[in-house]
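In this section we walk through a basic example: taking a raw amino acid sequence and producing a predicted 3D structure, encoded as discrete structure tokens. The instruction is simple. Fold the sequence below.
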Amino acid sequence: MYFETHTITVDQKSKTAIPLGPESIIISRSMFQGGKALGYIASPSSVTPWFWQGIQTLEGRRCVYTDTENLQPLTLLFDSSSSLASRLDLLVLLIRSLNRAQTEIPAPWFAESFILPAVRIIPGTGALILPKPITELMEQSFTEQDKIEMHDAWIRPRLPAGTGWIFQCISLLYRMLTGIPPFLDDDVREVGYQPVPVGLLNPGVGSHAAKTINLWLKGAKDLPSAEDLASWIEANYEALTTESVRQQDRDAETALKAYRRDLARKAKRHVYLRKKGMFLAVISAAVVISAAFLISHIIEAAKPPPTVGWSAEEVVRYYYQLQDELKLDAMNDILSRSARKVRETQLVYLHVTSSVRRAYGGDELIRASDWIEAGKPQLGPTDMVYGITDLDIQRMDDLRYQASYIFWLPEGQETDPASAQQVRVTGAYYLEELVLEKRTDHYIIDDIMIIESRIVY
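The resulting token sequence is shown next.
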């Protein structure tokens, strides 16, 4: 429908009508007055203004009409009742007319517009370029199939601004030689807009000319300028017109069928990857991340702890210092699995609580040593005191030590972190025995036994 032109009678005068869409299409009242939007008639040597006159309904379709005669749709290029040579002449005329228009019409038209619904051929003159409001109305009434047949079948995505109309002219040439638009097939669009080669659809086209057209449409070669394209068509008339209808050659048929089978297979794989790609990407990413984490963990595990070369007593003292600072990761470097379980619940709870309070702008935990040095001032309702004071370490033998200290923590956390309704502070005396293990160049704490514990504050 959107390629068409018709002759109608308005006020007993013959007019040329161009369909916009179905009768139900919404048209602003101002458009019924006609002549409001500027179009252009372009030839290779000039560009003149053009105005439409009004809107009429024809066989259930809205149309704009004009006095301009001999307007022909672009489908005239595909009319096999005339010779391919004469139709190539029309295409060259169209290209040179649009090229002239590009120098005089505001640049946005050529940067944004799509020529199929927007252009009509005027044989012997050039082309009519319809006003933007008219082409926008046409596009509003496009069905999904219209969008494919009028747009997707002719142009590939992401072309440089201002080159789209040149690419579409190459697509028109492809259609003239092969009988189909380059990207009409779903499989062709699915595999990245790679059209069936011209030579497979029309073996009569010269191989060099066919290869050049294929390269332009695949985007593998820079697009020519408009004048270069027109001149190229003229220079290759013989190669393009030797055999305008595809030869019914058995070898050609076999090659085309094989190509289409391969195309369908690739398209099917693309569809699968497009639909499942996110899932596969997530799985792949998870595998990579897991592998990276595992490798990192292995590397970290293989690293010697920072206590290499330290004495056993220094390791014990360092352990209590890390407790006082809530540095759980560093503690794990010097504790065996069994030793980590002592007071693990308390430390994890306090570590998380401290992190959350910092994240939300809350108060830091109050270090017990600072609180005692300040004279044990009264605590606020949200204050939390934690830490180790009065630490005393006694050596029993090379691998056994006793440590006594006061363990300060929020009231109620000693037995049940969730039980404290009003957070205060308690101080508990602890006496512990620590058993160390001698590794190649460092000590680790292998066991911690609580010998005595009592509340003292």
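Looking at the output, two observations stand out. The first strand starts at residue 6 and ends at 10. The mean pLDDT is 80. In the next section we compare this with other chains.
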